[in-house]
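Below is a filled-in request sheet from our internal design queue. Each sheet records the structural input a requester submitted and the sequence that came back. We keep these sheets so that new team members can see what a complete request looks like end to end.

REQUESTER: design group, bay 2
PRIORITY: normal
MODE: inverse folding
CHAIN LENGTH: 185
BACKBONE (tokenized):
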């Protein structure tokens, strides 16, 4: 079944039909980027996932650090029950407004393309493919179990490697948070 989904996603990409929604409800190509952009970081999140929300300051710092180097950050809301109004409120409440773009993925097109399963989870798209998918850092060991501070900064290190033209040391890590599959469809 997984191979079939991968083939369908590959076909959709070949036809240019990978689409999600902006907050106005219009379809957009989440992989679209202007020439100076070197990478897109997709941050799968949810308005009510406590782990996602605890990462807001870290994600704002990463966006501030890497945006001048040609990296854009897009928050992706895969929960179909989260409407544009709730997302706009979330963007303001967690000070994301202006730091990132927000997209809705209620049909999970981008979820399937990247392989994301958790909120929060990051996927970096660069060079025509997903080069990293996984956790932001290792602060959360398991749901409800966290360290005082992260000792590994996976997302930062992956972005830095891509910008330096080097392979990502760990292209896939396990994120901890709320399961995307649990969202009502």
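RETURNED SEQUENCE:
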């Amino acid at each position: 079944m997984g191979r079939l989904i991968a083939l369908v996603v590959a076909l959709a990409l070949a036809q240019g039909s990978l689409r999600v929604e902006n907050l106005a409800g219009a379809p957009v190509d989440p992989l679209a980027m202007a020439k100076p952009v070197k990478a897109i970081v997709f941050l799968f999140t949810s308005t009510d996932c406590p782990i996602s929300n605890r990462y807001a300051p870290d994600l704002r710092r990463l966006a501030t650090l890497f945006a001048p180097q040609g990296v854009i950050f897009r928050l992706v809301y895969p929960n179909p029950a989260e409407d544009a109004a709730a997302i706009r409120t979330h963007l303001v409440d967690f000070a994301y407004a202006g730091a990132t773009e927000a997209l809705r993925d209620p049909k999970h097109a981008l979820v399937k393309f990247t392989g994301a399963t958790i909120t929060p989870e990051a996927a970096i798209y660069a060079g025509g493919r997903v080069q990293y998918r996984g956790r932001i850092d290792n602060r959360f060991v398991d749901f409800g179990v966290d360290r005082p501070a992260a000792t590994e900064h996976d997302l930062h290190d992956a972005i830095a490697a891509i910008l330096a033209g080097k392979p990502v040391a760990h292209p896939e890590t396990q994120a901890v948070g709320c399961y995307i599959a649990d969202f009502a469809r």
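SHEET NOTES:
- The two ends are 19 Å apart (CA to CA).
- Helices lie at 2-14, 50-54, 56-66, 84-93, 109-114, 154-163.
FILED BY: M.R.
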